[in-house]
Amino acid sequence: MKAIVIDEYGTADMLHEADLEVPQIAADEVLVKIAATSINPIDWKARLGLLKPMFDWGFPVVLGWDLSGIITKVGKDVVSFKVGDEVFARPDIYEDGKRGTYAEFAAVKEDKVALKPKSISFEEAAAIPLAGLTAWQVIVDRLKVKKDEKVLIQAGAGGVGIFAIQIAKYLGAYVVTTASPKNKSLLTKLGADEVIDYHTHSIVDVLKDYDAVFDTVDQIDDGLEILKPTGRLVTIAGHPTEKQESATQSVSTWWLQPNGKELSQLGELVAQGTVKVIIDSVFELTSSGLQAAHKRSESHHAQGKIIIKA
Ligand SMILES: NC(=O)c1ccc[n+]([C@@H]2O[C@H](COP(=O)([O-])OP(=O)(O)OC[C@H]3O[C@@H](n4cnc5c(N)ncnc54)[C@H](OP(=O)(O)O)[C@@H]3O)[C@@H](O)[C@H]2O)c1
Predict the structure, then answer these.
(1) Which residue segment(s) compose the domain that 220 sits in?
(2) Distance from residue 23's CA to the centre of ligand 1 (Å)
(3) What whole-number distance in Å separates Cα of residue 161 and Cα of residue 196?
(4) Predicted confidence (pLDDT) per residue in 173-223, tens digit
(5) What's the total number of domains in the chain?
(6) What is the CATH number for 176?
(7) 131 in contact with ligand 1, CB cutoff 6 A
(8) Can you give the residue ranges of the Enoyl reductase (ER) domain (predicted)?
(9) Would you say residue 262 lies in a domain?
(10) Are residues 137 and 248 in the same domain?
């Protein structure tokens, strides 16, 4: 099958096309013919070798951890899906480093898969799993945002931020976010009550007594400063210091846990139009397509999700 791989850690120009074996599936896995995948910052962080302490991959490495597509094979223990189902998923990060989603096929454990709502395109569906589930798990499960609470979501125009704003609004919160001025009207349309231009205003000068902070930019001290003494902060971008952890507010880090059931719930919100998918750009599954997509993500200024069409 066609895949886009790296043979060493380095720049985006290392990404190139290769011919690999179609992955074998285990009894609890399905094989998906990929229609689309999407880029997340973890992709280029992995490409640079920053995940080496966690994963001892052998080259070539296939990156990518979002997919939508059609099931072409099911393992013998799979009960919830069949060949022909249209699905989307955030697959596990496999130890061998060869089973990412920059490829024609990927194996996914049954419990990580969700049926794709018919009304969502494959491109939209591929945008949801990693960023959408991260936003869902932080806003709903970790911060436990409630109606009328005041919530700050950093980097509102990013892949995670756009989902987080809409999920927090769905729960009835008052939502403030940070963004460049060009993104203000989009984020207001998506429900943000206030959009702070982080280039000209520091959140600590304009916000106080917040109930919850979703930190996506590693500004934990600033987040703590605007919280009530009983407030909660979750970061997906930093590592709280001992001093930060000893604050009166609760402070924690979160790593996405892929989960097919939660993905299904989020898919329903998208199908109903409660949560909108915002696509920054679409590239082809080619060497030049992936190189351009990584460079776009590394600019730190994508508006929503960067999609790869297989
Ligand atoms: N722990 C986990 O499980 C997990 C999961 C997903 C993501 N992450 C991490 O979370 C971070 C965000 O991910 P993402 O997918 O949302 O990234 P992204 O899509 O690349 O974010 C791009 C956005 O960041 C905004 N931005 C850049 N610098 C900013 C700043 N100083 N203040 C406010 N906004 C800023 C830009 O907004 P403007 O263009 O408006 O300036 C742009 O829209 C990344 O570090 C990623 O690795 C962690």
Answers:
(1) 131-253
(2) 31
(3) 14
(4) 999 999 999 999 999 999 999 999 999 999 999 999 999 999 999 999 999
(5) 2
(6) 3.40.50.720
(7) yes
(8) 10-308
(9) no
(10) yes
Q: pLDDT per residue over 3-53, tens digit each?
A: 999 999 999 999 999 999 999 999 999 999 999 999 999 999 999 999 999
- For residue 273, count other CB atoms closer than 10 A to its CB: 8
Say yes or no: 20 and 81 in one domain.
Answer: yes
CA angle 154, 264, 282 (to 5 degrees): 60
Contacts (Cβ under 8 Å, ≥6 apart) of 194? 175, 176, 177
Q: Is 183 in the pocket of ligand 1 (CB under 6 A)?
A: yes
178 lines ligand 1 (CB under 6 A): yes
Is the CB of 134 within 6 Å of ligand 1?
A: yes
Ligand 1 and 133: CB distance under 6 A: no
96 and 154: one domain? Answer: no
Atom of ligand 1 nearest to the CA of 218: 45
Which residue is associated with the tokens 């997919």? 67
